[in-house]
């Protein structure tokens, strides 16, 4: 059926869900982390990365709890509507009343006072996550109008920025490999966009050719569900493990031979602003959780899997960064860590492997693009959705994917210098999505459902950080982040 905003699509195993989340979180941030570690000092970096990983895990559990609460809310509203439809006389509640009570004046009679059963005869758990409820729909259910508008501004700015960055980064990497000199002296050669690549074809032309190929290959996934990329996700996840393991082993070999050049400082607070930005984006996944978690067939261990994912990713980040900063001189570390292997034959003298690592950013970004595009498309659908209505096939399958895909591709065609977009809109919107919105969702969902479900109702997907203190702690941390980012921008501009 076209137009259903809560479609879950084809289910997949918990392991596949873990792979999806790993791929989404471990993006280009991992490759920029070694340089940030080297400039901030290893003690400061270790402390900040671990703390930000913990904060991101906490807000991830907040989103999952809010998803379960939203499913319970939808069941309650559906049962209320059925009671109205079954009534022979004119109901004292109209459809608008049902929506009104669902959003701002919850019914005080607990719905668990009526026992419901599933098809197999067992009791229904109202908090089962069986319908995909995007963050936009959760905001509409639990926030007032101002809160909903602020949410959509935040999510759309961030996701469009993400897609534009990804759409530019992949063609840039392909252009560097195809046009750049990947011999051992490549690091000393500087190129301009107007330099030739293939005969009369300039590097800028080559970039746009690769961008067109990228759009034709990955753009169609925007018209489908994230589940359609399952095998692509598994394949590129394998490539990521190979590339990360290769870089870690090569660095360890060099350190073991006593040829490591790294002497990183213990602490250098001048590098903290850059490290903060890298670390925040290195754990970002909250915006795509509904699309990733809902199709998991067995959600009994979803909390354990999320924790395992975060521990695994944190371990990877630390191992990659620490081997890097003790292997290479801090002043020689590239912003994109893979370049330290592609332009240095003393570290890696096998051409095929240098090309493989040179293309590694392509692997990491290409699998994130469809997931984020599907998330933005679903939020657009939710923004314009009205209860009881469905979209025509053309609108659902063509219009929404196009308004998701076209703007970032156009931006990427016009420029591949997106640093200002990342530095300002990304920082503010990213802080909102990773910290403020999840905390608000879980706070208001708890307040909203307690009079509806009753105090004895137990959300089986409840966050382990259930005390209100943690919500306020996240809000305080988010405010500190915004002040920190703003102060850093002002101080940077003052020095120019």
Automatic annotation (TrEMBL):
Residues 13-67, 138-444 form the Amino acid transporter transmembrane domain. Keywords: Glycoprotein, Membrane, Transmembrane, Transmembrane helix. Belongs to the TMEM104 family. Residues 98-108 have a biased composition (Basic and acidic residues). GO terms for cellular component: membrane. Residues 79-117 are annotated as: Disordered. The keyword Transmembrane applies. The lineage of its organism: Eukaryota, Metazoa, Chordata, Craniata, Vertebrata. The keyword Transmembrane helix applies. Residues 82-97 have a biased composition (Acidic residues). This is Amino acid transporter transmembrane domain-containing protein.
């Amino acid at each position: 059926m076209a137009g259903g905003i809560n479609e879950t699509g084809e289910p997949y195993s918990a392991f596949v869900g873990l792979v999806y989340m790993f791929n989404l979180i471990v993006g280009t941030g991992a490759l920029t982390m070694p340089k940030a570690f080297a400039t901030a000092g290893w003690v400061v970096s270790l402390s900040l990365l671990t703390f930000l990983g913990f904060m991101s895990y906490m807000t991830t559990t907040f989103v999952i709890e809010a998803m379960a609460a939203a499913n319970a809310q939808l069941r309650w509203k559906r049962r209320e509507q059925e009671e109205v439809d079954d009534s022979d006389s004119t109901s004292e509640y109209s459809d608008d009343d049902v929506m009104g009570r669902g959003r701002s004046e919850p019914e005080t009679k607990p719905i668990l006072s009526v026992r419901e059963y599933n098809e197999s005869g067992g009791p229904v758990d109202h908090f089962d996550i069986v319908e995909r409820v995007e963050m936009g729909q959760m905001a509409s259910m639990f926030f007032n109008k101002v809160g909903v508008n602020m949410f959509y501004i935040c999510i759309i700015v961030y996701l469009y920025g993400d897609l534009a960055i990804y759409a530019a980064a992949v063609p840039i990497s392909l252009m560097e490999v195809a046009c750049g000199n990947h011999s051992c002296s490549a690091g000393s050669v500087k190129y301009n966009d107007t330099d030739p690549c293939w005969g009369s074809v300039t590097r800028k032309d080559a970039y746009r050719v690769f961008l067109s190929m990228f759009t034709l290959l990955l753009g169609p996934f925007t018209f489908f569900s994230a589940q359609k990329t399952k095998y692509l996700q598994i394949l590129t996840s394998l490539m990521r493990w190979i590339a990360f393991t290769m870089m870690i082993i090569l660095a360890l070999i060099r350190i073991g031979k006593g040829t490591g050049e790294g002497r990183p400082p213990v602490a250098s607070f001048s590098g903290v602003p850059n490290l903060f930005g890298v670390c925040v984006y290195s754990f970002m996944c909250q915006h795509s959780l509904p699309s990733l978690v809902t199709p998991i067939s067995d959600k009994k261990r979803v909390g354990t899997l999320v924790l395992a994912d975060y521990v695994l990713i944190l371990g990877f980040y630390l191992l990659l960064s620490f081997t890097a900063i003790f292997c290479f001189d801090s002043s020689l570390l590239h912003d994109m860590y893979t370049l330290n292997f592609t332009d240095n034959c003393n570290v890696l003298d096998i051409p095929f492997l240098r090309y493989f690592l040179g293309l590694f950013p392509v692997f990491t970004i290409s699998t994130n693009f469809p997931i984020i595009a599907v998330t933005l498309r679903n939020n657009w659908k939710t923004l314009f959705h009205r209860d009881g209505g469905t979209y025509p096939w053309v609108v659902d399958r063509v219009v929404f994917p196009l308004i998701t895909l076209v703007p970032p591709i156009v931006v990427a065609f016009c420029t591949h210098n997106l640093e200002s977009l990342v530095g300002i809109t990304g920082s503010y919107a990213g802080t909102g999505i990773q910290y403020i919105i999840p905390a608000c969702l879980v706070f208001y969902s708890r307040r909203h459902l307690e009079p509806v479900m009753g105090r004895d109702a137990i959300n089986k997907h409840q966050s382990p950080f259930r005390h209100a203190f943690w919500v306020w702690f996240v809000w305080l941390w988010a405010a500190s982040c915004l002040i920190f980012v703003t102060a850093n921008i002002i101080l940077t501009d003052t020095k120019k």
